[in-house]
Each structure stands twice: as C-alpha cells, then as structure tokens.
Write a structure and sequence with these properties.
The chain is α+β, with helices and mostly antiparallel strands. It has one domain (3-111). Helices cover 35% and strands 21% of the residues. It has four helices and six strands, in the order ββαββββααα. It has helices at 30-40, 87-94, 100-106, 115-135; strands at residues 3-7, 23-27, 55-61, 64-70, 75-77, 84-85. The chain has a six-stranded antiparallel β-sheet with strand order 2-1-3-4-5-6. β5 (75-77) and β6 form a beta hairpin. α1 crosses α2. The protein is elongated and about 75 Å long. The model has no long low-confidence stretch (mean pLDDT 84).
C-alpha cells in the first residue's frame, strides 16, 4: 500500500486550493488511491500566480518523492517522459506494479540513457587513444 501526501488539495480531494502545505494522508489501498486520482484528474491549478497544482506525492524510491497531479482531465507525472496518464496507469506506477520507465516504454519512449556510463566509456577511450598517441 503506497503512503501518500498531498499538496494543493482540500481535505476531501474535491477542490484545488493552490496551497503548498503538505498533508500526510497515510497508507492507502490501491482502490482508495484510484478514487482520489479520479477526483483530482479534472482539477486545475488555481489561476493565481505561485499556486501548487492538485498533487499526490508518493515515495517510489527511498528518499525521493514522485509527484502526480491533476490537469483538466488527466494525471501528469513529473518524472515520466510521457507525463500524461490515466488515473489507472498512475495507480499501477504508485503501487509498484509498473515502473515509470516501463510506462514510458509502453508509450513509445526509449529508455533514458545513463549519461554516467557514457562519460566513463568515453574517458576510457580517450585514455587509450592518448596512450596510443604517446607510443607513436
């Protein structure tokens, strides 16, 4: 059961308040989470500047929150390349049934490359190439 907190939402999840204050909502079943996401999907961020969108935050990886927010009929995820998803797809990610990477791939996005691996590989190639040049 995912543990969530919300921002920018009223206690009953039906109104976008724009508040950045976090409300701990505790551990929820996937059915409860789906109900909440269906309620927030049609909400929009209040028009005033500096408002928080109606957001459900959950910790998918230890120490790192992932934000899912309502935007006029869809759920958006700040960590997804696809970004736009249905409440049902968001619940699969939040419950651990599917990773964000798997979701993105299912929508036609290539997996993110690991830049650190490429930097390491290119560094090794540069050292080898420099060694060859010093021999010649």
């Amino acid at each position: 059961m995912p543990r969530i907190e919300t921002q920018g939402l009223s206690e009953d999840y039906r109104t976008a308040t724009g508040s950045f204050d976090s409300l701990d909502r505790g551990d929820l079943s996937t059915a409860e989470l789906l109900d909440i996401l269906r309620l927030i999907a049609p909400l929009r961020t209040p028009d005033e500047a500096e408002n928080c969108p109606p957001t459900v935050n959950t910790m998918l990886m230890k120490g790192s929150y992932t934000c899912f927010y309502g935007d006029g009929g869809v759920i958006r995820c700040t960590d997804s390349r696809q970004e736009e998803m249905t409440p049902e797809e968001a619940v699969k990610i939040m419950s651990g049934e599917m990773s964000i990477e798997e979701f993105d791939i299912s929508k036609g996005f290539k997996p993110r490359s690991n830049g650190i691996k490429w930097i390491g590989l290119l560094s090794i190639i540069a050292v080898v190439f420099a060694g060859i040049l010093t021999i010649v």
